[in-house]
Amino acid sequence: MLATVGVVFAIAALGYMLGGIEIKGVSLGTAGVLIVALAYGILAHYVPSFTIGGHEIVLFSDTVKAQYSIVSNIGTATFVTAVGLIAGPKFFRTFNKKSVAYIVMGVVIIAIAALVAVGIILLTGTDASLIVGIMTGALTSTPGLSAGKEVAANAEGLVAGYGIAYLYGVLGVVLFVQLMPKLLKIDVARERETFTAANAVTIKPITRKLKNFEPMGLFPFFLSIAFGYIIGSIRIPGINFSLGASGGTLVAGLIIGHFGHIGPINCVIPKQTLNFFRELGLVLFLIGAGVPGGVNFISNIKPAYFAYGIILTTVPMVAGFLLAKYVFKLSIFNNLGSITGGMTSTPALGALISTAGTDEVSSAYAATYPIALVCVVLAAKLIIMFF
């Protein structure tokens, strides 16, 4: 485990260096960490271990894979909880007609992806498990992948498909949310000012004295994660469905962020603490998922599979953007925020926050993500079961 910890931080450092490179004002940002993680995984695929001075250095093995799974799980829980806590104080107070738009966006984006996946299966005769893997990778949905594995006859193909589509699934949405404001010639500073004013909510301060266990907000943050895992583990009878860790921690963050206290216990967390955990969680998630994804990247590759992945990311994303822009008339930041939620793309949310210069866009993500999560989990199971 010690070696894995060192590699994780080395990947993070190199990833930030790569992500900081700008070309015509566009950069990979934190997604650079994913590229380095995938590159390391591909190297480990070819050279899983080597010997120096009589000591064996293991780059990847079943034990190491399990360690990266822990890193990914911690990262997911940390990032999504922070997003929920940031959005929570305003999320439930801003329910209006736009809330319906976000729900519809989540359903439509995943429905389009599912229809495209079914079309590919029927037209090409490709194994349904593989295509569902590509679909969940294109949507960067680990819960969808897990749901598919529960019913897949070809679990290996499912996971391979996920790895093939995952890179473009992340980078496609990350670049989309960065490029669209530039292509539409949006004045980001003015849009941010208008957007912030339109989303301003007066939050009634808590007047009574509350108990603080420590000054940094670590107690309520860790409590939110624990509470989220309890919520995520609850299964709906009959369909064997649960929100999982990501959905559960998001809901817990929204609830605790909304109320700001549990009885006499203060649960308001300083903004800098939430920003730190949000970024740290995102990096750990990208590394934990990226390294094993790189190891499996080479196996069972066909050029057509990459094309399927590109289609399954691009078509729902563009369709969702047009729906939000021309039907629901959402502002560019709410539009792109709902796209990141509908595509279940946590890395893209990080890129959008950086592009917009405000984490208020998290509200649109948080409003769209839960329904999209439910839809992709159901879609993954149903497609495999019926096709």
Q: Which regions are unreliable across 5 or more consecutive residues at pLDDT < 50?
A: none
Beta-strand proportion: under 5%
Radius of gyration (CA) equals 21 Å
Overall strand count: 6
Oligomeric state of the chains in view = single chain
Protein structure class? mainly alpha
Assign a percent range to the helix content.
over 70%
Could you spell the SSE succession in H and E letters?
HEEHEEHHHHHHHHEEHHHHH
Strand adjacency order, main sheet? 1-2
Number of helices: 15
Major β-sheet profile: 2 strands, antiparallel
Mean pLDDT, to the nearest integer, reads 83
Shape: globular
Calculate the terminal CA-CA distance, rounded to whole Å. 41 Å
Whole-number tally of structural domains: 1
Provide an overview of this structure:
By secondary structure, the protein is mainly α. The protein has one domain. The chain contains 15 helices and six strands. The strands form three sheets. The chain has a two-stranded antiparallel ribbon with strand order 1-2. A two-stranded antiparallel ribbon has the order 3-4. Strands 5-6 form a two-stranded antiparallel ribbon. Helix 5 (128-138) packs antiparallel against helix 15 (362-386), helix 9 (218-233) crosses helix 10 (244-259) and helix 10 runs antiparallel to helix 15. The two termini are 41 Å apart. 51% of the residues are buried. The model has no long low-confidence stretch (mean pLDDT 83).
